[in-house]
Amino acid sequence: MAERIPQLAIMGHPNAGKSSVVATLTENDRIAIDKRAGTTTSSDVYPVVIDGRNVIEFIDTPGFQNPNAILEWFQNNEQENQDLARAFIKAFGADELYSHDCALLEPVANGAGIILVVDGSKRIKEKDRVEIELLRLTARPRMAVLNNLTSQTRYMDQWQDALSKAFNSVRIFNAHRATYAERIKLLNALKSIDQRWEPLVQEAVDAFTNDWERRTDQAVTTILDLLKQALTYKVSRTVKDSKIIFQSGRDRIKAELTAEFEDDLRRLEVEAQEHIRTNFRHNVWHLPPDSILEQDLLSEEVGQALGLSRRQLALVGMAAGAASGVTVDLATAGHSLGSGALFGAAAGGVLGMVGGKALAKLNIERAPGTHTFTIGPVSNPRFPFVLLDRIVLYSARAMNWAHGRQAAEEAAPNRVPDKDVRKQGFTEALSAQQQRVLGRFFAAARRGKDSDQEAECREIIMGILRGVSLDEIDSRSDL
Amino acid sequence: MEQLLLALSGWRVGAYATFGAGSAMTLQALALLEEGDWQAPPPRVVVIQDGSQPPITENLLFLRELRAVAGTEAQMLLALVGDPEDDDRLPPLRAFDFTDWQRKIDQMADPYLRLEMLAPSSEDGEEV
Predict the structure, then answer these.
(1) What number does CATH give the domain A7-175?
(2) CATH 3.40.50.300 segments of chain A
(3) What is the pLDDT of residues B37-70, one digit of tens each?
(4) Do A65 and B96 touch (CB under 8 A)?
(5) What is the predicted pLDDT for the residue at B125?
(6) Residue A330 has pLDDT above 60, yes or no
(7) Of the four listed, A133, A238, A287, B18, which is most buried by Cβ atoms within 10 Å?
(8) Sign of the C-alpha dihedral computed for residues A406, A472, A143 and A123 taken in this order
(9) What distance in Å separates residue A35's CA from the closest CA in chain B?
């Protein structure tokens, strides 16, 4: 006999947001969500699979097509039938008119619990009252979800009152904005809809929580790998003397090498982002064009929005024994990490140049008949904090970006507004001690050495990601 | 409502019935048609419907039942309104919702069934 797992049929009338709720709860952004009514025409099972095992199943059902007729039939047959859903299917299973309704009631007849999804932004209508009552008559464990995707909250109390009379639990859940913590809260609330379900649901919640912890840990590994790779990265090219007799030849080599170095840093970041996105199961990924994640990694804008403040950087620099670099940073008061700065470095080719802050230094080695140009590793003290902040920002978005948001009307005038912009990266909010740990880790990484700070550094990043998951640290979704 | 209807169709209301909450209401509405004394046939029937709720089989079935009683050449007008507000019980419908209904009504292939918005939409036809 197959192992029993909780099954929940997601119900509600067309366009209430059922598919969005399923997509968010199962972290599946490939579920077809269409703003046109009636996109879902059959009951589709979406399991939450962890370690190859289904731990809970959500069944996306078509909306009710004949709610009044079903309710009347239920009311007329209530006395004779203990299992009204099963009896209705038996009576109308062959009737084309009720094919969608039978598909909707099938999982309920098979023992699934019910999650009724209603659009809490709209007033309660007669059809809603009909649905609430007919689901009550099924006598299955049931929860109602108030899926309010807008800022319209005036009907929420009325909904709560109406639903509380017929459902074991009523939860407010924005399927387009729900974070990991909110998803877990909703899953935990399922335990209360029927005491007999408690152990099964708890098992599913535990599996989900453990899996999330594992995925978060994997994300931290990706982040640390990115930092180590980016901070040790170098590009070199050996050219014959005959190619660089003139200044123009040297400038061309420098320019090409600079572009290669910068592009490779960008590529490393993109690869890490792809790992994280896959880790948190995102296939659909839209970023607003003004997001800091859409800007060039080495741009002035990113450099200013993320990373440590100058004062923090100075303190970290002293702790990490990189005071000379910090002196330059303070002297120039610049944030630019762009190619202009790098050219400055290339022209100077020495440590501690003045007049611009270098991302990395250019080294030229001469041998008989050849010159070897090398750029890297990154020497800019600010860059690793910017890179870390940006990949944490990306992770925060991947962790808390609801999978059901693919159909969100981002331009809708009454949608839930984003939070106020908070121009502060994650590392800037860390304690001075934690910043120093990171600084030492970066310094060791630049030298290509294993750092005894790595474990502590891992804990710091893990702490940020956990805080983001549990809504204890702001996700900076507006950055 | 009668003014809006007059402006939309040129028709005046002779009698009305409420529907949408069970078979008893449906029967009353159908009886009104059956027993109606139509002074200038063919009959003209207007259905005022909240179009902010997506069209479901139940709605379309009701229209078919009306057609069966009113006759094949009765002029039927399905006038949609938006989600009622306190200060406007008959607001215009969002263009998106109207399109949703239009698809379903087109599928019914009823040549004497016309679909309209009861209240005029905003100037540019965009959602209000």
Answers:
(1) 3.40.50.300
(2) 7-175
(3) 777 778 888 999 989 888 889 999 999 999 999 8
(4) no
(5) 42
(6) no
(7) A133
(8) negative
(9) 9
Average pLDDT for residues A82-100, to the nearest whole number?
Answer: 92
The SS3 of residue A45 is strand
pLDDT tens digits, A21-78: 888 888 888 776 554 555 555 778 888 888 888 888 999 887 888 999 999 999 999 8
Does the distance separating the beta carbons of B57 and A100 come in below 8 Å? yes
Rounded Cα distance between A354 and A471, Å, is 43
Backbone angles phi, psi at B44, to 5 degrees: -120, 125
Provide CB contacts within 8 A for A83, sequence distance 6+.
A109
Selected residue of A61, A65, A129 to mutate for chain B interface (largest B Cβ count, 10 A) = A65
Q: Which residue from B minimizes the CA distance to A155?
A: B85
State the Cα–Cα distance between residues A462 and A219, nearest whole angstrom: 9
Chain A CB contacts of B54 under 8 Å are 13-15, 37-38, 63
Test mutation, B25, B50, B53, B106, chain A, max A CBs within 10 A? B53
| Contact residues on chain B for A97, CB-CB shorter than 8 A | 57, 61
B118 near B8, Cβ under 8 Å?
yes
The whole-number pLDDT of residue A339 equals: 36
Mind telling me how many Å the CA of B2 is from chain A's nearest CA?
A: 23
In this complex, which of A35, A64, A123 lies closest to B56 when CB atoms are compared?
A64
pTM, 2 dp: 0.77
- CA–centroid distance for B44 within its chain: 11
Each residue's pLDDT tens digit, A160-206: 999 999 998 999 888 888 888 888 898 899 888 888 888 888 988 99
Only one residue has tokens 């070897």, namely: A372
With an 8 Å Cβ cutoff, are A100 and B58 in contact?
Answer: no
What is the mean pLDDT of the segment spanning B97-117?
Answer: 89
Choose among A38, A68, A125: nearest Cβ to B54: A38
Closest CA to B41 of B13, B70, B62, B8: B70
Question: What is the side-by-side strand order in the sheet with B75-81?
Answer: B44-50, B75-81, B113-117
> Nearest CB to B53: which of A35, A68, A125?
A125
* Helix (H), strand (E) at residue B8: helix B2-9
- Closest in B22, B50, B100 to A68, CB measured: B22
Question: Taking residues A281-301, what's their average pLDDT?
Answer: 86
Residues of B in contact with A125 (CB under 8 A): 50, 53
State the ipTM, two decimals. 0.86
Q: Which residues of A touch B80 (CB under 8 A)?
A: none
> Of A26, A16, A163, A29, which Cα lies nearest the Cα of A104?
A16
Segment A395-446, tens digit of pLDDT:
999 888 878 776 444 445 455 555 544 557 899 999 999 999 999 999 999 8
Q: Which of A73-87, A414-428, B3-17, B19-33 has the lowest mean pLDDT?
A: A414-428
* Residue of A39, A127, A131, A154 to mutate, testing the B interface (most B Cβ within 10 Å of its Cβ): A127
Q: How far is B47 from chain A (nearest CA, A)?
A: 17
Domain borders along chain B are 1-11+42-128
